[in-house]
Amino acid sequence: MASEYYRVADLETRVESLLHSVALVVAAFVFGTLVFLSAASVLRAAGFEVETMASLPPLLYTALTATQFLGFFAVIAFYVRFHRGGDLFAIEVPSLRSLLWIAGGFVGLFAVAAILSAVFRYVGVDTAVNQVTRQIEQYPVLAFYMIPVTFLFVAPAEELLYRGLVQGLFRRAYGSVPAVLFASLLFGAPHYFALLGPGDTKLPSIVLITVLGLVLGALYELTENLAVPILVHACWNSFSFLSQYLEAAML
């Protein structure tokens, strides 16, 4: 029996949800990469060595990192404008109740990450390292520059794309539970290209990211306010950056 949790829509809606979701993710990364490369070429023309981003001043490094997410915003805005994508999600200023969900969601992410990390250590599975993490290891002060970037660019762009549009498309076709699952899978998979290390270390990291996506997706379904997963995502990334700073500073 169909419900808000699980349904099977008509074939056209199901096909559209899959094709549009994959196309949105691919387009966001392609256009984001083009914007990034364009910005890098400008810096290169100005005499900066962008081939080794570690040589860039922290402010330029974070600005260049943010340009990719300008591409995300452009794709999201296009879809919202021409495909009524704004009907797929809701966002508003967080209420007191939403703030409680944000605090609980952050604790939930921390607990899930801690449990999975402990499981990976117990079974002897290594995990890959994010490119930004490696940069912070070399230049700890970069962590403080990345915090405003994650609040203004990374978290809003990724949550609008995955929890807003992709999850909204799948919800319309299959209901909220499958939507959270499918959107989280599409959220985790592309992170393969942002991870450093052998292939066998990337899969556990992608599993962890996908599970964290499940938490963010569930938060949105429970609150019906995209601002909640955006802020939880941003706080989680910021916490990670600060943890990496403290670890690198103590070495």
Automatic annotation (TrEMBL):
Alphabetized UniProt keyword annotations: Hydrolase, Membrane, Transmembrane, Transmembrane helix
InterPro entries assigned to the protein according to its UniProt record, in alphabetical order: CAAX_protease, Rce1/LyrA-like_dom
Entry's Gene Ontology molecular function annotations: endopeptidase activity
Domain of life: Archaea
Keyword Ribonucleoprotein annotated: no
Entry's Gene Ontology BP terms: CAAX-box protein maturation
Pfam families (alphabetical): Rce1-like
Keyword Repeat among UniProt keywords: no
EC number annotated for this UniProt entry: 3.4.-.-
Listed transmembrane segments: 20-47, 59-80, 100-124, 136-155, 175-196, 203-220
Residues covered by the CAAX prenyl protease 2/Lysostaphin resistance protein A-like domain: 142-238
Entries under PANTHER family matching the protein: CAAX AMINO TERMINAL PROTEASE FAMILY PROTEIN (PTHR36435:SF1), SLR1288 PROTEIN (PTHR36435)
Name of the protein in its database record: CPBP family intramembrane glutamic endopeptidase
Originating species: Halosimplex aquaticum
